[in-house]
Structures are given as C-alpha cells and as structure tokens.
Automatic annotation (TrEMBL):
GO cellular component term of the entry, any: cytoplasm
Name assigned to this protein: Epimerase
GO MF term list: aldehyde dehydrogenase (NAD+) activity
InterPro entries (alphabetical): NAD(P)-bd_dom_sf (IPR036291), NAD(P)-dependent_oxidoreduct (IPR051783)
CDD domains in UniProt: SDR_a4
Length: 274
C-alpha cells in the first residue's frame, strides 16, 4: 500500500484524501486547525497539525513525511486583501525536510494566475508572466521545487475552483461595475481537480521509478464563454441578483487550454459545462 502525505486538507485536500483512501492509499493529512484533527481522524486519515511560517514550521513535519512516497502540496498563498505573506519562504522551509524524507515525488497545486491576462491562448508551452503577487510567488515556488534534484515535481495549474458549495457567482451576484465582461472564464470543478491528481498518480506509476522528469499540466475545463454571458446565466439559473458589468473599458483575460491533461494523462473531463 502506497502512502501519500497531503499538506493542506482543506476544500480540495480533504475530499482528495478521502478519494485516495477509497483507492487503497494510506494517507497522512495536515491541517492548521486543532479542531479539524478529529475530522481527519474520522475520515481514516492519519492527522497532523502542521503550520508553515516564513521562518519556521510548527508540528511534527518529519513524522508527517515519514514513509510516504508522494507529497501533495495544496496550500494556496494568503495574499488577498492586506496580507503580505512570503509564500516562497514557506515552501523553502519545507524543502530540507522533503530532501531527508522517503518522498521521491511531489505534486504541487498551483494556479493559472502564473499566466498574464494578455488576451492570448495559453498552453503549457506559454512562458508564464504573472501580473499578480500571488501568481509571482506561485511561479517562484514552482521553480524552487522543480529545480531540486532530490525529488521529482509535477505542477498542476488549476483554473478558478468551483464545486457544489463554491461558485464565483455567489460573490458576484448583485455587484456593479464588474470588469472584463468579454474575458473568457477558466474554471474547473472539484471533481475534475481530484480526477486529474488521480491521473497524475496513475501516470507516475505507469512511467516507472526511473522517470525523473518534471511535468507541468494546465487544468481548466474546456468551456470558455465570456464572463458576462456565463455569470448572467448562472445568476438567472440560481435566482440571484444579476451582476452588472463595466463595458466602458476593453476587456482583458486569457483562454487556458488543457489539451495535455487529455493527451498525456488520458483524462476526460467529467464536468465540461457547469
């Protein structure tokens, strides 16, 4: 039975852990909250309270990584509002612990925010050019992980995350002067996030132990209507107040293609329209 450590059992990490348990993996899972330890334990996950800071790690990180073949890092930067977190320093802090552990493969959950909103069509061959602080720090974290020769790192760049309990329209409903009405949406459902990570794990197994190549995958559903068209329809469907868009300025955005997920991983999106 392979053991996987999941750093960050939150909105995506917890259901991912439950799915992998069902597939026969043994899971170590981390949370920053002492209250959530019981939740992980009840799910069959070996729980750890781990807190990453810019200058230290609190919690038994060595035991968390012990005997695991794979580490999945799913801890997004906290850079909204007035936060000035140094996410890169957090990732740097964990590197020495990975190096001395049994982990030989890392899956790093990143974001399509590493690409600029320049109205282009984006593939994995597109050179990242982030225009947000979150995107810049994620890209640097990617480089730090993939440049390390002690383990192999696969990067998965998810688009906007949605699920049964999470959707941008709940935030946008009734708002006015929303920018970029003609910009395309780039979203992905939680079900497909989990499915793609499963496909990466399967791909690693079939590639064999000698495969030390680093991969990057974009992960966005192949569905790109304009923001105005999509969010207006979604508001109507959910009987919410309509969002109002600012059409006085040119729209910016990008269209993220995820063809590599389908060709290399042989993955078929379960939820193409939402």
């Amino acid at each position: 039975m392979k053991q996987i450590s999941i750093l960050g059992c939150g909105w995506l990490g917890l259901p991912l852990a439950k799915t992998l348990l069902e597939k026969g993996f043994s899971i170590n899972g981390s949370t920053t909250s002492v209250e959530k330890i019981a939740v992980l334990e009840k799910a069959g996950i070996l729980p750890f309270q781990i807190n990453l800071f810019e200058d230290r790690i609190e919690g038994n990180i060595d035991l968390f990584l012990s005997n695991s073949d794979i580490l999945i890092i799913d801890i997004p930067p906290k850079l909204r509002g007035n936060s000035t977190e140094n996410f890169v320093a957090k990732i740097q802090n964990i590197i020495p612990f990975i190096e001395k552990s049994s982990v030989d493969k890392v899956i790093f959950v990143s974001s399509t925010s590493v690409y600029a909103d320049d109205n282009s069509i984006i593939t994995e061959e597109t050179k990242p050019n982030p225009d947000t602080e979150s995107g810049r720090q994620l890209l640097e974290a990617e480089h730090i992980l993939q440049s390390n020769k002690n383990f192999q790192t696969t990067i998965v760049r998810f688009g906007g995350l949605i699920g049964d309990d999470r959707h941008p329209i709940k935030f946008l409903a009734g708002r006015k002067n929303i920018e970029n009405p003609i910009g395309p949406i780039n979203l992905i459902h939680q079900i497909d996030c989990i499915g793609i990570i499963e496909a990466i794990l399967k791909h690693s197994e079939t590639s064999g132990q000698n495969d030390k190549s680093n991969e990057v995958f974009n992960a966005v559903a192949p569905f790109h209507p304009t923001r105005k068209k999509y969010y207006t329809k979604k508001a109507i469907d959910l009987d919410l107040s309509l969002p109002e868009f600012d059409e006085s300025k040119p729209s910016v955005g990008k269209t993220i293609l995820s063809d590599k997920v389908e060709t290399v991983l042989n993955y078929k999106f379960e939820i193409k329209r939402y």
